[in-house]
Each structure stands twice: as structure tokens, then as C-alpha cells.
Amino acid sequence: MTEGTRRLTVALTLVLAIASSSSEAAETAPAAPADQTQATALTPPPTYRLEAGDAIDIRFLSNPELNEQAQIRPDGRVSMQIVGELTFTGLTIAEATTLVTTSFKDTLKQPSVTVQVRTFANRRVFVAGEVAKPGVLPLIGDQTAIGAIAEAGGLRSTAKRNEIVVIRRGANDIPEQIRVSMGGGSDHIPPAAAFRLAPMDVVIVMESGIAKADRAVDQYVRQLVPVLLTGGFTYLFNGAVVTGVH
Known about the structure:
Blueprint: H1 3-27, E1 36-38, E2 55-60, E3 68-71, E4 77-80, E5 84-87, H2 93-103, E6 113-119, E7 124-129, E8 135-138, H3 145-151, E9 159-169, E10 175-181, E11 202-207, H4 209-222, H5 225-228, E12 233-237, E13 240-244
Parallel strand pairs: 1-10, 7-11
Antiparallel strand pairs: 2-3, 2-6, 4-5, 7-8, 9-10, 9-11, 12-13
């Protein structure tokens, strides 16, 4: 056996091992780690919490002279008439309304307050991985995971098609991973078509095991063939005959 043939044999053995392990991993997928959850159909996004950069309207029904239109500063605060600085970041709309109402109790007999968001600072999502056009997308309305993938140009041929992962900011700003199935559910509608995204979600389309094996073939076989071969050869790989000529 020549040195070139020996190295090619080693390369083929490595590729076959990679392909085999990828296939086994796909057939017996491990349970989700503790920091991952499995998405179900009609999964609602978390309740929106105000962030720096959001523009808000604060209206007093009985005291319109106190109405405010303000943008939440980078420090999370808004300067209000009479009561001064109030911190809004991290609050839901209901909590922000309670905060303003409580702050004006010593000034107004019966403060009646509404808080509304005029514009959202971070109303966008990110799509990454095996999609045609990965990048940042505006989050308009009730966008779903599968809708965002479609907006990003759809899946590449190398995509793992049965599951995607959504990275979402959880409690205390700790990222959590949510596995979302791309396969049909009991009503033949994939959960990814009903999983509603939240601002700043990251949708990741993973690479298939076959695609990883194909990369290994390219790296360890196709790129080595011109260098290693000393003559014509034919071998069987994954059921396909590959022929090379010196």
C-alpha cells in the first residue's frame, strides 16, 4: 500500500465515522438540557417590558396639563412633572401605570392614569444559521418563528429541518433556549408556525448531520484526491461510486 493510498484510507474511515455518528445522533436525540424548554403550539410571547429607547405616552384623564410624551433614557428613567425621576425599564404597562398613579397620590386626589407605548426601541428579531439571508428583521405584529425564517429567505438545503432553536431573554436577563419543532403536530400544523416571537429573540436554524458529513467529505477526500492519488481509483462511499483519475 502506497503512502497516498494509506492516507486516503484513513481519511475515508474518519468520514464514515462522522457520518455514522451524525446519523445516530439524529435517530436518538438526547433530552433537552436543564436550560432548554420544548415549545408547544400557540406559545405566547412573554409580557412586554419597557426598555430604554421606548417612546411612551403618559396621560392623566382628569388632569391633561400633566400629560407627558417621553422617551425612556438609557438609564431607564423619565423626568416627570412634579414627582421628578421615575424608572420605567423592566416594567410592564400595567406596572408602569401603577407606578405613575402611586407617585401622584400625594398630589392628586384620584389620579386616573394610562400609559401607552408609541414606538418600540427594540422591536426586531435575529435569524441566524442555515437560512438564505441571515440577519436582523423588524418584528411586525404577531410574527411567528416559521414566518421569520420565510422572511429570511427560507431554509438552505443544509438545514436541519425538524427543529429550530429560539434564544430568548429570560428572568434576570438570563438567556433561555427554546426548542421549536418544524414537524407537523397532531393537526398537521408545525408548532413553529404558531410560536410567536418576542422582541430581540434569536432564531437559529441548525445544520443537518448530513451537511456536516458532506463538509467532512469535501475536506478529507475531495481536497486530498489530487495530492494523494498515484493512479486511477474507484471506491464505494455511502452507496455512491466515486471515480478519480490521475
